[in-house]
UniProtKB/TrEMBL annotation:
Keywords: Cell projection, Cilium, Cilium biogenesis/degradation, Cytoplasm, Cytoskeleton, Repeat, WD repeat. It is found in: Cytoplasm, Cytoskeleton, Cilium basal body. Transmembrane segments: none annotated. GO terms for cellular component: intraciliary transport particle A; non-motile cilium. It comes from Dermatophagoides farinae. Residues 1213-1254 form the IFT121-like zinc finger domain. This is WD repeat-containing protein 55 homolog. WD repeats lie at residues 67-98. GO terms for biological process: intraciliary retrograde transport; non-motile cilium assembly; protein localization to cilium. SMART domains: WD40. The keyword Calcium does not apply.
Length: 1255
């Protein structure tokens, strides 16, 4: 971090500035001082803030207002950010609240107590309350509207500071006795805060500040956000008012002010030692980041800008502005930048991410980097050091270090190698502890801790085997390091720093560790293709020869180095120390004192002092040029032939990206990060990057363009032979002026073969405008070249070709749409659409890619886009259009994953992969289709897979799934067998819902029967003999797999079981509804289903229904049937049950006894019923029913009759009501189950009452 003073503003009448405050939200700066001076200013800023940072911060004041109401010295000013109010107080006790209205500040409220001095004011974070403390012990709390909330007076206590907690529930009030009292928000005293009296109170005479970061929290699990500062230079950093483990900071100066920045990760401290003033910046971990001396007699106050890039200081009668350059972790790659940014999630937790931002495409790729440590780059590679979590590291250690307990507690670091767009191309693990530094060259990454460094050789170019090596690195790293420890060898010993190496007998491609054994800590590292340099805090610099890191030289510096860099050929070393002083070392210079090679380059005699250098870079093409960043200036130094020539400084404020072709590339990285955090859209990184030509470039351009002296320009370039890049500038400038001869000579001097070929082609062109256009295109001035092609030459074809070669296909599309009369227009347009689709597809903008692919019917590319965009219906339509087998396979697998079996099978078949088509059917349980495919394409038999699947389902007792699988596989016999098994198990259970379940199971048999019959009809059999054989074999289908008991029943009528339980349930439903005649009609039909229902079930229900319907003759017949079950018949029945279900004899005897009791009960009930009611048929029929004539024989019969007693005609039963359908003209027949119902009754139904098919 580097802090430097940038500008100052003087106060009129030389009034001393006592207090200052910078509004974070509205950017106003308020300062108060002697003689009632109170000013509000605002720095002028442009609309595009990132452009502002490029203009040397030379901002004017957009607001400069003097507020004239105070008569005494203004002691304090504070902002209410939410309501945009300013509060000021003076030495007379006058408090004024100011409001902003129509561009001016006006008084809103005045409070003039005039009894005592105001010693502290503080607003809550939400701006609703203010607390004011007075020297005489008075405390007043008011609201934002000016009303007083409460007041309190502390007797015999002098107050001097006040602060609110972030949540506004606690008030901290400091006293002049160096104590802090804690109150709640309504004024109740809670306690005195615990201070470190052993260190603080002994020497402290005054409490300087209480600052609680308002965006923070009071939890014990978060960083310290409460600062207590004392005049003796001690700062107490706490988590909350109850933190007994406060951290102490000794500033070693008398503190005058202290202030948090907007993010709460840094705070500034101002003070003085003797007659010198300083400002110090600390982070929230109490680590000192930077120290800067401040001119003047006394510094009173300081305040931060919202973005933490600037501070304003109150010094004497001036306001000083200081620029802060933070140590941002960032890298400038060949065609992108990568930087670390901090942001906050929805829960206000700090998150870190690594952003890669491409310069040409302006695309951003962001990666999580919560465990980030360090980063470095080389051309288009970037290495990022991450500390791995314990869980991740333990997973990697388990296989390699199970017996090495000493290594299990070490932290593990991961070296991630990225390309310029943020794609991970390699990584490496190391257990080097506490990594702090990182650097890299074209084939090695070197990381260092305080006392050791680690070398990792990586493969520069990506190949298919790169990721195969990743597993080797991670699995064998710890084993390698363990072996390295056993093979420790001394590497060198020199001076006060002794170094030894622990490594294998390794080649140049093996990683190894070098350990520094003494107490001197590493302070910085750098590497080139030839050397690796390590700097130590003691000032010693060690030089190692790559690739084996052999120690070859030691350099002594009288300061502690903090930053180093080697030039391109490793002959010179540039470095700065901790005080930002700059040094240069030449490895090839002769040291006359030691008679050895290598000596410091003397630069102290130069005009420039070079004492505030915070960054520097060597020229990439020249070994003797280097650019330095001193405060807000760029300084170029030429070291040709041992000389030191310092060029005129260039004013600019930014970060240094690169120095090449005698031009300095800079970026306003601070403003870029601020704009990203402010969620500004449509940011273009190139707007933040500026190329600044050096003094040499400006001079030679001036000679050519301004003075029009080509001869002087050539002489200038000849006089500076160490800068061959000047000839490139000469040739480019001459080309702009179409001075081809001079450009030709300059290109020869510069050995520019490509440029010479261009000049030969340019000489063949006669048209002057065409020449200018070609020159603009050659120098990459695309827009200017296109303008010449279109406006001066009327050649849109050349403009199209220019943009095509430049890869700007959107512009190509625009030109082709505008000029539609060009030759091969359709072909060009199709090619343009294809290129645009590929561009958007490569950038994962699927909708845009689909838009252009659809215009040219690029089905193969559309398939990939539809898969990525998950457009299932559109993808299905492409199955018959795509011809690429590879894409068809990809489509088929995607459709298979979605469960689209038929479509995926079609795609597999078109891709000629029948085996995978069959497997897809098996996976999706389409066994019938799988069987057909296996038979059609002679693939492997799926019966084995089917049986395995069935066994799996049977193990889990998933019988319904088994039935469905067999149905899909057209194995009807096995499906029916499982249903019959379920029927038998259901009958054994004593379940109230058994009849309903039995109906469903029998109904399923009937449905399966109808499906099989329909499939046979749809199979297309035209031969009558085949149809007859099929009909005759249907009984065999249902007979296979069923027991002998159910075989004849199912073969005769598969629907009969469903009928039995349907009428059984319908009878009970009518009984409960009080429809007794309908119930009796249904019960009469149950007599035909003794195969499915027991005699007791049928006739007991019939007797009940007949009795309820007062049809005593039918009731009598039902009781006779119930009483006719004799013991002999029951014994035979029970014997069959014993043989079938293995029931023991004891249970059989018990069952017989129960049946005898039931029979006796039937007799008793019959006697009670028929003693009161005669079972005469005629009387009963007359009471409950009317007679109708049989339609076949004319016999008069009751309407509930199921059979005509004369002609023995059996009438169909209505499945809706249970009535007999005697009049066939009113008959309705179901289209699936072929059962009947009365048309009048079925009108109210939407589904068949039996099979539930939709009517």
């Amino acid at each position: 971090m580097f802090l430097h003073l940038n500008k100052k503003i003087s106060i009129p009448n030389c009034s001393q500035v006592r207090c200052i405050a910078w509004s974070w939200e509205h950017e106003f700066i308020a300062c108060g001082g002697e003689a009632g001076m109170l000013k509000v200013i605002k720095l002028e800023s442009n609309v595009n803030q990132h452009q502002t940072s490029k203009n040397d911060l030379s901002k004017n004041l957009s607001v400069n207002q003097t507020l004239e109401s105070h008569k005494a010295t203004v002691e304090s000013v504070c902002w209410n950010e939410k309501f945009q109010k300013l509060t000021s107080s003076d030495a007379n006790g006058t408090i004024i609240v100011w409001m902003f209205y129509k561009g001016m500040w006006y008084e809103e409220m005045v409070n003039n107590r005039q009894k005592s001095l105001v010693t502290g004011m503080a607003w809550t974070h939400d701006g609703n309350k203010i607390c004011i403390v007075y020297e005489d012990g008075a405390i007043i709390t008011g609201s934002v509207d000016g009303s007083r909330l409460w007041g309190k007076e502390l007797k015999n206590i002098s107050l001097n500071k006040v602060e609110w907690s972030p949540d506004g529930k606690i008030i901290l009030i400091g006293t002049k006795d160096v104590e802090i009292h804690v109150f709640d928000h309504v004024g109740n005293f809670l306690k005195k805060m615990s201070l470190n009296h052993t260190v603080v109170a002994k020497a402290a005479e005054k409490l300087i500040a209480i600052k609680w970061f308002k965006n923070g929290t009071t939890s014990n699990h978060y960083p310290r956000r409460l600062i207590i500062a004392f005049d003796n230079g001690v700062i107490q950093l706490m988590r909350n008012e109850s933190d007994y483990n406060a951290k102490l900071i000794y500033c070693e100066m008398g503190i005058t002010s202290i202030e948090w920045n907007y993010n709460g990760d840094m705070f500034a401290v101002t003070g003085s030692t003797g007659n010198k003033n300083f400002i110090k910046i600390y982070n929230d971990q109490a680590q000192l980041l930077t120290v800067t001396k401040i001119p003047g007699n006394e510094v009173y106050d300081c305040s931060w800008e919202k973005n933490s890039r600037k501070l304003v200081l109150a010094v004497d009668s001036f306001m000083y502005f200081a620029n802060l350059k933070c140590r941002i972790s960032w890298c400038f790659l060949s065609n992108s930048i990568a930087f670390l940014r901090n942001n906050f999630d929805d829960e206000q937790k700090k998150k870190r991410s690594l952003m890669f931002w491409e310069l040409k495409t302006n695309k951003r790729n962001e990666r999580s980097a919560d465990n980030f440590i360090q980063m470095a780059c080389w051309h288009h590679y970037c290495v990022v050091v991450d500390k791995m979590d314990k869980l991740q590291s333990n997973n990697n250690k388990n296989n390699t270090l199970e017996n090495n307990q000493s290594s299990s507690n070490k932290d593990v670091y991961c070296l991630n190698l990225y390309n310029s767009i943020g794609t991970l191309i390699d990584y490496h693990l190391t257990d080097l502890q506490q990594i702090k530094f990182c650097c890299m060259n074209s084939n090695r990454v070197i990381v260092a801790s305080d006392n050791s460094f680690y070398v990792w050789p990586f493969k520069q170019l990506y190949n298919a085997n790169s990721f195969k090596s990743l597993a080797f690195y991670s699995d064998n790293l710890y084993q390698e390091l363990t072996q390295n420890i056993a093979n420790d060898n001394d590497l060198m010993a020199g001076g006060s720093v002794g170094v030894k190496s622990r490594r294998q007998q390794q080649s140049s491609s093996t990683s190894f560790v070098v350990v520094v054994t003494d107490n001197d800590n590493i302070s910085c590292v750098t590497v080139s293709e030839k050397f690796f340099i390590v700097g130590f805090e003691s000032g010693i610099i060690n030089q190692y020869l790559l690739p084996n890191a052999s120690f070859i030289n030691k350099i002594q510096l009288d300061a502690s180095p903090s930053r180093m860099a080697l030039n391109k050929n490793s002959t010179k070393l540039a470095l700065t120390d901790r005080n930002s002083r700059f040094y240069l070392y030449d490895f090839e210079a002769n040291n006359e004192q030691t008679w050895t090679e290598g000596n410091w380059i003397e630069i102290s005699n130069t005009v420039a002092k070079l004492t505030d250098i915070w960054d520097f870079k060597w020229e990439t093409d020249n070994n003797d040029l280097i650019v330095l960043l001193e405060k807000n200036k760029f300084i170029v130094i030429n070291l040709y032939k041992g000389g030191v020539k310092i060029l005129d400084p260039i004013l600019f404020d930014g970060y240094l990206c690169s120095f090449q072709q005698l031009s300095i590339q800079t970026i306003a990285l601070d403003q870029l990060i601020v704009d990203i955090n402010n969620h500004l859209d449509n940011l273009d990184v190139n707007d933040y990057i500026v190329n600044i030509p050096s003094h040499y470039v400006n001079e030679i351009k001036n000679l050519i363009n301004e003075k029009d002296s080509i001869t002087d320009a050539i002489n200038y370039a000849v006089k500076i032979p160490e800068l061959p890049s000047l000839w490139t500038i000469v040739s480019n400038e001459c080309l702009k002026n179409l001075d081809i001869e001079t450009a030709y000579l300059a290109m020869i001097k510069n050995r520019d073969y490509k440029g010479l070929q261009f000049l030969k082609r340019l000489n063949r062109i006669k048209d002057l405008n065409l020449k200018n256009a070609e020159v603009c295109a050659y120098q990459n001035h695309i827009q200017q070249a296109e303008s010449l092609y279109l406006q001066e030459l009327d050649r849109p074809d050349l403009a199209v070709y220019l943009n095509k070669m430049n890869g700007n296909f959107e512009r190509v599309r625009t030109l082709l749409e505008k000029y539609n009369n060009l030759a091969n227009h359709d072909k060009e347009m199709k090619e343009c659409y294809m290129n645009l689709g590929e561009y958007y597809q490569d950038n994962y903008q699927w909708q845009q890619a689909i838009r252009y692919y659809e215009k040219i019917n690029a089905y193969d590319q559309l398939a990939e886009c539809y898969i990525s965009e998950q457009k299932y219906d559109a993808l299905v339509t492409l199955v018959d259009k795509v011809n690429d087998e590879k894409i068809l396979l990809q489509m088929a697998m995607f459709l298979e994953s979605l469960g689209f079996c038929k479509d995926s099978v079609r795609a597999y078949i078109r891709a000629n992969n029948f085996e995978m088509a069959t497997n897809a059917c098996v996976k999706l349980s389409e066994w019938k289709m799988a069987t057909e495919l296996a038979n059609r394409y002679k693939t492997k038999n799926v019966d084995m897979l089917l049986e395995q699947y069935i066994q799996h389902l049977e193990t889990d007792h998933k019988y319904m799934e088994m039935i469905q699988v067999y149905r899909n596989a057209n194995m009807i016999d096995k499906a029916v067998a499982i249903i019959i098994k379920l029927i038998d198990e259901t009958k054994k259970m004593d379940n109230n819902d058994g009849a309903s379940l039995l109906k469903k199971l029998h109904l399923l048999i009937g449905i399966i029967y109808e499906e099989n019959k329909l499939n046979n009809q749809n199979s297309g059999r035209n031969n009558k003999h085949e149809t007859l054989d099929e009909l005759l074999s249907q009984n065999d289908i249902f007979a296979n797999g069923t027991d002998q008991q159910h075989q004849p029943i199912i073969s005769t009528d598969p629907w009969k079981g469903a009928e039995a339980y349907h009428f059984y349930l319908l009878t009970q439903r009518n009984l409960y509804r009080g429809k007794y005649q309908l119930a009796m009609n249904c019960a009469l039909h149950l007599q035909d289903y003794e195969e499915y229902l027991t005699v007791q079930q049928i006739y007991s229900l019939l007797a009940l229904a007949a009795y309820a319907n007062k049809c005593y003759d039918i009731c009598s017949k039902a009781f006779i049937k119930l009483e006719s079950i004799d013991n002999e018949q029951q014994c035979k029945w029970n014997s069959c049950i014993n043989d079938l279900f293995n029931v023991n004899t004891t249970s059989t005897i018990t069952t017989m006894a129960n049946e005898e009791k039931k029979r006796i009960e039937y007799e008793r009930m019959a006697v009670q019923i028929f003693l009161k009611n005669s079972p005469d048929e005629n009387s009963s029929s007359n009471n409950v029913s009317t007679n109708i004539s049989c339609k076949f024989c004319g016999q008069s019969i009751p309407e509930y009759s199921a059979t005509c007693p004369k002609c023995q005609t059996k009438f169909h039963a209505c499945v809706a009501t249970g009535k007999s359908i005697i009049d066939q003209r009113k008959n309705w027949t179901c289209k699936r189950c072929r059962h009947h119902a009365i048309q009048e009754e079925i009108v109210s139904y939407t589904n068949c009452p039996l099979c539930h098919v939709k009517i």
